[in-house]
Every structure is written in C-alpha cells, then in structure tokens.
Amino acid sequence: MSVRVKPIKGHIDRAGGIAFGIQNSSNYYVIRINALEDNVILFEYVNGKRYQRVAVNEKIHSNTWYDLSVEIIGDSIRGFLDGIPVIEYTADNQVQGFIGLWTKADSVTYFDELIIETKGNKKVIKF
C-alpha cells in the first residue's frame, strides 16, 4: 500500500503515515514520517503500548509531498520513501488486518492517492 503524505504544521508533532495490520485499536503497525524529527519510523502497538521497531534518519521537509509505501509479504515488512527502501523488519507473526491513515498529536497532515494492492488487485483512492 502507498499514500502521498504532506506534513504541514504542528508544534508537538508534524507526522503522518500508514497504519496496517490493524487487529483493533490497541494492536497494529505504523510506518510514518515526521518533519520535526527528520525521520521515518516503524512502530508496533501491542496491547496499546508503542514499540519502535526501526528508525531511519531522513530529511523530511514541511509543505512537501512524499510517497510513503509499505510492502508486506507474510512476516516481512519493507518501507519505502519516494520509492527508495528505507526500512526492513521481520515481525514475530504474519502481518494481516485492516489498514488506515495515521497522524498524531497536533499534526496537520495532508494525504492523497491511497493505493492498495493485494495479489495483483489494485485499488486507487484519491482524496
């Protein structure tokens, strides 16, 4: 899945990303960018507690569009920023569940062109 993300403003956070493998409101993954921290991070939420799985320093500018995508095959998670692989992680179990868009705190973030592709089936959602 992929989405275009544009962090606009926020004093606490300036972040946005993709939530995936959503089992419920307390158990899921997030790959996100943050323009205040200049990074891409993969988080896993387990029973409501957040665990940072992988973090990569990347210059993220406010008011700039980024293509953020994640590829999931079984327990393998690969994250891409503008088509370049930046994160690789192997989960404890096969990743499956719902997906969504994610932001936090006082972030003002724009999203566009959510693309979901499963086994050759592609769906594009434009906002």
Automatic annotation (TrEMBL):
Keywords: Kinase, Pyruvate, Transferase. One of its GO terms (molecular function) is kinase activity. It comes from the Bacteria. This is Pyruvate phosphate dikinase, PEP/pyruvate binding protein. It comes from Candidatus Sulfobium mesophilum.
